[in-house]
Amino acid sequence: MSDKHSPIIIVGGGAWGLSTALHLNASGHTNVTVFERAQTIPSPYSAAYDLNKIVRPEYEDPFYTDLALIQEAIEGWKTPLFGPYFHQTGYLVTTTGAAPPKATRHLHEALATIQHHPVFKSKITPLAGRDQFRDFAWQFTGPLSGFSGYFNRLAGYAHSSDALHGAWLHLASVGVKFILGESAGKATEVLYETLPSSSHLRVVGIRTADGKVHQAKTTIVAMGAHAASLVPSLGKFAMARCWSVAHVQLTKSECDLLRGIPTTNVRDLGFFFEPDPETRLFKLCPLGAGFTNNQQGLSLPPSERLPAPQDFIPAEDERKLRRLLQEVFPWMANRPFVDQKLCWFADTIDSNFCIDFVPDTHKSLIILSGDSGHGFKMMPIVGKWVTELLAKGKQDEERWQWRTVDTRGEDWAKAVSWRIGSTRELKDLISEKKRLESARL
Ligand SMILES: Cc1cc2nc3c(=O)[nH]c(=O)nc-3n(C[C@H](O)[C@H](O)[C@H](O)COP(=O)(O)OP(=O)(O)OC[C@H]3O[C@@H](n4cnc5c(N)ncnc54)[C@H](O)[C@@H]3O)c2cc1C
């Protein structure tokens, strides 16, 4: 539906915005401009501003396993552009002996989608007990109490910040334009016009924080957790939610010791990766229902990431991570956490993405949102779905269509099968942090 020379604006140079620029450029679109509020890419506001993200194929919904991963995403990670950032370390998934039934059920349901699949059959090893886990990770010296799960040798992780940086450099070299920074690159408004001879609206571009107007035939909003600040109606069904991220600073020999360990997900506690050889940081994330920041009817990330209050993790998450370390690496369990932060993503009630035209905009405004905390692995292929959407002029995949439901005001995250616990509000976490700090004084 769009001619390949007409101007296209992508707002957001995160995982999905850059992927979209890559695929539009590869399919011959010559007039693509990416607006990014950060001064450089990777942006500290991106959910992918991180050392690593899990790249795994198992999902309870085989749609994502089959369509996205087996056929394309993992293959995309093996191409020259993405390959330097992909590490196929294998993926250990387990629950502890103390896991709630929900965590065990989720593990078995996700495993069922790949266990008998022809592509994975010979690549999955069920595991029970400490000795069997140590066959795959001899470095796990902790008790591994009641560990039961499997090893998937096809999966691993990607270095997410480096992947964003690599994609940016490539795109700049092939002529995609970038407008960066809090003034020139930050979109503050989507601009509409009324179509002649009707009352219908059409989006004609954006205004940026410096007051400039940028015209486009198609505007694509790929702002992750921040998107509802530009398109508030999205916030009814895709809300900003955050999880904690923490690191332990290792010495050279500790880092060398853990090189090559599988990406490991203990479904009732949290997950971790092999350490980053450059910074020697060992990253951990607790698993939970996440935290929201509801204000005036919308959950959005606080507008500034740095400095505090976001550079901490809640006490309940710290406890989970310390338990995880006691189970796996007791020698690390009391080490200080460094580089702690809350990382924001756009969440939907059923964890399905939204990749669609915004209704009543005459197919001039596209939203890429609802990554639901599992969208980074799709970076090599998200843009392909967007070019297909543009070419077809409609979203045929029901899971990814714009929704008219309003899911605000309910704590539905605790019902999501792969999350344990309940949602809390950022303001309560900040008060709790202040209380704990003053109790320590
Ligand atoms: C703690 C955590 C762990 C995760 N783990 C995994 C995992 O293991 N595997 C996995 O696949 N996924 C994981 N994810 C999810 C993954 O990070 C996201 O799915 C992915 O980053 C979504 O990409 P995006 O482009 O939609 O958003 P983002 O990557 O967040 O990018 C949005 C971009 O928009 C920019 N922006 C915002 N506002 C404006 C504005 N007004 N103007 C211009 N630019 C703007 C931001 O600076 C940012 O660069 C995790 C997420 C979190 C938070």
Q: What does this 3D model show about the protein?
A:
This is Oxygen oxidoreductase. It comes from Aureobasidium pullulans EXF-150. Residues 8-389 form the FAD dependent oxidoreductase domain. InterPro entries: FAD-dep_OxRdtase, FAD/NAD-bd_sf, MTOX. This protein has 441 residues and is α+β, with helices and mostly antiparallel strands. It has a domain at 1-51 and 159-235 and 348-409: FAD/NAD(P)-binding domain (3-Layer(bba) Sandwich), CATH 3.50.50.60. It contains 9 helices and 24 strands. Strands 5, 6, 7, 14, 15, 16, 17, 18, 21 and 24 form a 10-stranded mixed beta sheet that branches. Helix 1 crosses helix 8. The termini are far apart. The relative contact order is 0.18. The model has no long low-confidence stretch (mean pLDDT 92). Flavin-adenine dinucleotide binds next to helix 1, strand 2, strand 3, strand 14 and strand 21.
CATH C-level name of the domain at 1-51 and 159-235 and 348-409: Alpha Beta
CATH architecture of the domain at 1-51 and 159-235 and 348-409: 3-Layer(bba) Sandwich
State which percent range the strand residues make up: 15-25%
Helix amount: 25-40%
Mean pLDDT: 92
Radius of gyration: 22 Å
**Name of the CATH homologous superfamily of the domain at 1-51 and 159-235 and 348-409:** FAD/NAD(P)-binding domain
Largest sheet: 10 strands, mixed
List the uncertain runs: none
